[in-house]
Write a structure and sequence with these properties.
Layout (H helix, E strand, L loop, with lengths): L9 E9 L5 H9 L17 E7 L2 E6 L10 H16 L2 E7 L6 H9 L6 E7 L6 H14 L4 E4 L8 H11 L17 H17 L8 E9 L5 E9 L2 H8 L4 H18 L3 E9 L7 H6 L8
Parallel strand pairs: 1-3, 1-4, 4-5, 5-6, 8-9
Antiparallel strand pairs: 2-3, 7-8
Helix pairs in contact: 6-8
């Protein structure tokens, strides 16, 4: 439901696409704030997962996630790439992120080659400019603009924030006029540890949505940065009954192991560090009667 009907507000969806490790997570953090804001995905949501919302003046910028795009070799790879492009086709604007250190490698070439199919306005974002000579950047920008049609080119360092303010202002001017789709208070930055819990919960439901009621939850209990920059995370999955605990663990612990591995990979991509994830399953009776737990997941608490 529109949250603001002032005539001068703007609001739009922006897809950030790029090869894996081009720096999307870091850029998203820089655009949205120090932490990524997560908007809980309702079961029936059809859009790409919303990864963050930023406010810039009277504009609300909603960033949608797309998986890293790469040159597909196997059938499975091709299927994944198709999914990534669908996020781009649904957005109002499409930001194409290229790692300036790698330049126009095979992955970047594959992305530029398909951009003609995307009708929306596209902008080129060259990332990691803090570690690349200026001449190389100009040559790279020229070559990329010759291969695809970009409305603008931005040179940024997502890590130290160079160029991010200008990028955000440009996006705010280009999203369509219209009411905000999310309440301003939903902007408050969710800590990364909450986002990590959300990722694990998503993996849990992807695997067990038939057997598990919607109101089981995951909480991040321990988040410890280790000496080499690795992160140790301990999370607890809370269920309502012992029978559900057994389902989550699976035979010989196989189910929890698979959930943990899938979540660990995604959390590591988010925080851009090596992650050691430990999952525990506990029974918390009466969990489903607590309205506050429902609200924390973005769900309406049923009156009946």
């Amino acid at each position: 439901m529109p949250m603001d009907n002032k005539a001068d507000t703007r609001c739009g969806f922006i897809a950030l696409i790029g090869a894996p490790n081009a720096g999307k997570s870091t850029l998203l953090n820089a655009l949205v704030g120090s932490k990524v804001t997560i908007v809980s995905r309702k079961v029936q949501t059809t859009r790409a997962l919303i990864r963050g919302i930023a406010l810039e003046g009277e504009a609300q910028l909603i960033f949608v996630d797309t998986p890293g795009i790469f040159a597909p070799r196997r059938r499975l790879d091709r299927a994944m790439v198709t999914t990534a492009w669908s996020g781009a086709h649904e957005a109002d604007l499409v930001g194409v992120l290229i790692d300036a250190r790698k330049g126009l490698d095979e992955e970047a070439e594959a992305i530029l080659g398909k951009l003609a199919e995307v009708k929306q306005a596209k902008l080129l974002i060259l990332n990691k400019i803090d570690v690349v000579a200026k001449e190389k950047l100009l040559t790279l920008a020229k070559a990329a603009n010759e291969k695809a049609s970009f409305a603008a080119t931005f040179m940024i360092s997502a890590r130290n924030g160079d160029g991010v303010v200008d990028l955000k202002k440009w996006l705010a001017e280009r999203v369509p006029p219209g009411p905000w789709l999310y309440p301003p208070e939903q902007m408050s930055d969710a800590p990364v540890r909450q986002l990590a819990a959300e990722i694990t919960r998503e993996k849990l439901f992807e695997r067990l949505h038939q057997e598990l009621p919607y109101h089981s939850t995951v909480e991040t209990e321990v988040w410890k940065e280790l000496r080499k920059g690795d992160i140790r995370i301990e999370q607890t999955i809370y269920v309502e009954r012992e029978s559900q605990r057994k389902i989550v663990l699976g035979k010989n612990g196989q189910t929890i192991k698979a959930i943990g591995e899938a979540a660990r990979k995604e959390i590591a991509e988010l925080v851009e560090a090596k992650v050691h994830l430990f999952l525990f399953v506990k029974v918390r009776e009466g969990w489903g009667e607590d309205p506050e737990r429902f609200r924390a997941m973005g769900l309406e608490f049923p009156k009946e």
